[in-house]
Amino acid sequence: MARRPEVFVRPLSMEEGRKLQRISRTAKDPIKLRRAIVVMMSGQGRSVPDITSLMQVGDDYVREVIHAFNERGFDALNPKWSGGRPSAISVRARERICLIAKTVPAEWGITGMSTWSLRTLAEHLITQGVVAAISREHLRRILRKGGVSWQSTTTWKASTDLDFIAKMHRVLELYDQRPVDGRVVCVDEFGPLNLMPRKGKRWRPVGSPARLRATYHRYDGVMQLIAALDLVSGKLFYRIRTRKRWREFLSFLKRLRACWPGERLYVIVDNYAPRKHREVRAWAADNDVELVFLPTYGSWLNWIEPEFAALRYYALNGTDHRSHAEQNAAIGAYVRWRNARAQPKTNFAASSPIRSWTSYLAKAA
């Protein structure tokens, strides 16, 4: 029998050689990796028998790979997966499965259940004739591909404030166009500050989480933190007190007033009763301080809220302070660290849908 003619890959450019070498080092698909090595070895002058011996593949396989690369280039390295057997569940049926999954059993006259499990949903789909049979795992894959996931319900607290839109626009106006005669300050309370172990996250060896005590007593009462965010400098100002009455709030306002004498203060606050105490209102009117009240249930408009989230995450989570002095010191250290890196606050919710609201959404979308 005559010897088969030798087959070699076409001459490779320097760039093609580098690309083959890169694929041979980084390719995760074993088929693509093996084909790239075959082509690279052929480009180095190795004969087909040498390649089959080193790669432990068939002679015909090596020749097919080389011919394919010569014809189609690097596209020939990618595996061409077959589609497998046709799906037993049509596209239309899959869409209906996702629609039914987003309903609740009561809508189908099924009592005793408030939500579907994969088993009950599969049984219902068979009863309704959507599918003849379906496993729970197949159903899970269909839902995931259709963008339907298992989620917790959330709550929506509707505001009864008839002036919601007007108040919201007033706050946004102060955020967007800083008043020339003063500065905007966002004020709110954070707390109560208990002495208790707080769950958190930190870098640890795999399988060795940090441990906190599970049993504890809340001795020494609680403390209350009141803070202000100055939008001009981006810095936080705070005080920690045992209570949060109008007296504590007024005392904090006086401190803010002393920080910026000669400037009108626009103080963004929520509708907590001590803010509206007659003594507070009278002092504010006499000292060039305007209390700008947020709409009811609109605390998310207060720019200081995300600052509290960061304070909780970095200063408190993962700690187990045994005294208020220790905990207050940790809060103070974080605020000093943060203020040293503070930047002016700009662009509040610049692309948020709230910018286009002309009426209040009374329920969740």
UniProtKB/TrEMBL annotation:
<dbReference type="InterPro" id="IPR009057">
    <property type="entry name" value="Homeodomain-like_sf"/>
</dbReference>
<feature type="domain" description="Tc1-like transposase DDE">
    <location>
        <begin position="183"/>
        <end position="322"/>
    </location>
</feature>
<dbReference type="Pfam" id="PF13358">
    <property type="entry name" value="DDE_3"/>
</dbReference>
<dbReference type="Pfam" id="PF13565">
    <property type="entry name" value="HTH_32"/>
</dbReference>
<dbReference type="InterPro" id="IPR012337">
    <property type="entry name" value="RNaseH-like_sf"/>
</dbReference>
<dbReference type="InterPro" id="IPR047655">
    <property type="entry name" value="Transpos_IS630-like"/>
</dbReference>
<protein>
    <submittedName>
        <fullName>IS630 family transposase</fullName>
    </submittedName>
</protein>
<dbReference type="InterPro" id="IPR038717">
    <property type="entry name" value="Tc1-like_DDE_dom"/>
</dbReference>
<dbReference type="InterPro" id="IPR036397">
    <property type="entry name" value="RNaseH_sf"/>
</dbReference>
